[in-house]
What does this fold into?
Amino acid sequence: MLIVPSILSANFACLERDVAAAVAGGADRFQIDIMDGHFVPNISMGPMFVGTMRALTRLPLEAHLMVSRPEQWVEAVRAAGADHIIVHAEATVHLHSLLQAIAATGAKPAIALNPASPLSLIEDALEQATMVLLMTVEPGFGGQKFIRMVLDKIRRLRSALDQRGLACDIEVDGGVDATTIGWAREAGANVFVAGSSVFGAEGGPGAAMARLRKSALGASA
Ligand code: DX5
It folds into this structure.
């Protein structure tokens, strides 16, 4: 299992400190949320910020593109240092070509789905993806409540992947904390993005990630 702090919830005035604390605490990689104010009702970071993170850590970086024209941003986020590029199936009508274009840059292609989007949207693209991100909140903001309805979708995706013999990760993002991480892990997710429960936690990111790991592993024991 991997724990991926979402940098959206860090204190940008102390970015270097927060990144270092998360690295010291055992972060497996970082997620960078790229929003355009169109696909989601918020604007956050762009490719330049990916470059900033690249300068601050050697850990892998995943760019979660919450933008209306993901095709336009693949080259830039890759050039800035993203190792994984996650695109929303809802944001493109050419998912096959988009995943191919990501792979051609050398980045790992991943597909994201909003809470109410069906798995049927991506079932014919699973062979092309190294990971599927099932959103457990509507994308756009940190600090929202985990949508439990998605647990069933995690279960169905895990069994579809197993049936087809595909080694594709299932990532969850949104409202992941010491309680919900266990639910998601039990349902079959193995990569966990956490923002406010890491950067907003008492004791700092290290202690927070230790709690998350313990809860997740406890759930599968
Ligand atoms: C939502 C983002 C998340 C967000 C998660 O659009 O993709 O990464 O930062 O934040 P928490 O963990 O606070 O729900």
